């Protein structure tokens, strides 16, 4: 199997590294100094589960230089999907599978606007990892896991083949009964903490300690649930409480990656998180005042970050 990992940040670097470390044919798309270091010395992964170093089959920024893949794993940000999907078109074979692992609720829909539906799966992942320095990924916490499936939740041959491949690489993975629900459960968590974190610029424990902000988080989450339900996702109060159990268990100093992007003046996933909820709420006739407040307050910074990138 020819595998292309597009985007070698924390997500793509960790999972792509694991696949390459298992001896699979892995090509990597990266940029800048990070790419140069990978080309020269290979990709280093420092992990709580054991360190390793790999040399990908191909490491490049030029997609035309990679072998036509059987599986493409997207390690990019959700806001990059439309542009990257167009770039992928020329290298797709009839049976190439594209697996998105981004945060966000509508990545599958964004992909099938550009790519043939038969080439795309739905997916998400759990991992706490990041680029520590060019050429090196640090996996700092959490047992990494990929969750994926067909849009109709069938257990197709290709889904089972990817399951076997991930097993071979020692990557925990799951094919759930309802992939859309799993995507929204993670989205409920990440959207709830990201925007308010970017707005307050403090870690999640500081937000938890403030009664007003904590209630604001809960109201934001309730709006997300209502929008999800209107889109046919079976979210309920149980999922709200599950998310707040996770929020309440986050270690002191924890921040979300989107929050860090906002604080560092980088383009972020704001549009795909709180912005998405505001726009979907408007379309579906659901009021989303908390998410709108967060979104509108952060939007000028997001626009400035995109102009400067």
UniProtKB/TrEMBL annotation:
Occurrences of domain Ketopantoate reductase C-terminal (ranges): 178-302
InterPro entries: 6-PGluconate_DH-like_C_sf, 6PGD_dom2, ApbA, KPA_reductase, KPR-Related, KPR_N, NAD(P)-bd_dom_sf
EC annotation from Swiss-Prot or TrEMBL: 1.1.1.169
Entries under Pfam families matching the protein: ApbA, ApbA_C
Source species, domain of life: Bacteria
GO biological process, one term: pantothenate biosynthetic process
Keywords: NADP, Oxidoreductase, Pantothenate biosynthesis
Enzymatic reactions: (R)-pantoate + NADP(+) = 2-dehydropantoate + NADPH + H(+)
NADP keyword on record: yes
A molecular function GO annotation: 2-dehydropantoate 2-reductase activity
Cellular component annotations (GO), alphabetically ordered: cytoplasm
Gene3D superfamilies: N-(1-d-carboxylethyl)-l-norvaline Dehydrogenase, domain 2 (1.10.1040.10), NAD(P)-binding Rossmann-like Domain (3.40.50.720)
Pathways per UniProt: Cofactor biosynthesis; (R)-pantothenate biosynthesis; (R)-pantoate from 3-methyl-2-oxobutanoate: step 2/2
Keyword field contains Oxidoreductase: yes
Residues of the Ketopantoate reductase N-terminal domain: 3-152
Function: Catalyzes the NADPH-dependent reduction of ketopantoate into pantoic acid.
Family label: Belongs to the ketopantoate reductase family.
Protein name per UniProt: 2-dehydropantoate 2-reductase
Organism encoding this protein: Christiangramia sediminis
């Amino acid at each position: 199997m020819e595998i292309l990992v597009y985007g070698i940040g924390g997500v793509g670097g960790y999972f792509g590294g694991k696949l390459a470390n298992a001896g699979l044919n892995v090509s990597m798309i990266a940029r800048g100094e990070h790419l140069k270091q990978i080309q020269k010395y290979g990709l280093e992964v420092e992990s709580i589960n054991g360190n390793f170093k790999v040399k990908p089959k191909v490491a490049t920024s030029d997609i035309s230089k990679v072998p036509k893949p059987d599986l493409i794993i997207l390690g990019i940000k959700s806001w990059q999907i439309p542009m990257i999907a167009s770039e992928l078109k020329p290298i797709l074979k009839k049976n190439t599978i594209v697996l998105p692992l981004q945060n966000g609720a509508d990545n599958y829909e964004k992909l099938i606007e550009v790519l043939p539906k038969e080439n795309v799966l739905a997916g998400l992942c759990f991992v706490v990892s990041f680029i520590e320095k060019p050429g090196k990924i640090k996996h700092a916490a959490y047992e990494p896991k990929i969750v994926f499936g067909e849009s109709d939740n069938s257990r197709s041959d290709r889904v089972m083949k990817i399951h076997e491949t991930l097993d071979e690489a020692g990557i925990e993975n799951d094919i759930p009964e309802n992939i859309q629900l799993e995507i929204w459960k993670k989205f409920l968590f990440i959207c709830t903490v990201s925007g308010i974190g970017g707005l307050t610029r403090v870690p999640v424990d500081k937000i938890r300690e403030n009664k007003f902000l904590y209630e604001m988080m809960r109201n934001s989450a309730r709006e997300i649930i209502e929008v999800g339900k209107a889109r046919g996702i079976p979210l309920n109060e149980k999922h709200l409480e599950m998310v707040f159990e996770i929020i309440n268990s986050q270690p002191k100093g924890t921040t979300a990656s989107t929050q860090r992007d906002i604080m560092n003046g980088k383009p972020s996933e704001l549009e795909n998180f709180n912005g998405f909820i505001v726009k979907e709420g408007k379309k579906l006739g659901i009021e989303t005042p908390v998410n709108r407040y967060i979104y509108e307050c952060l939007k000028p910074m997001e626009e400035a970050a995109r102009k400067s990138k």
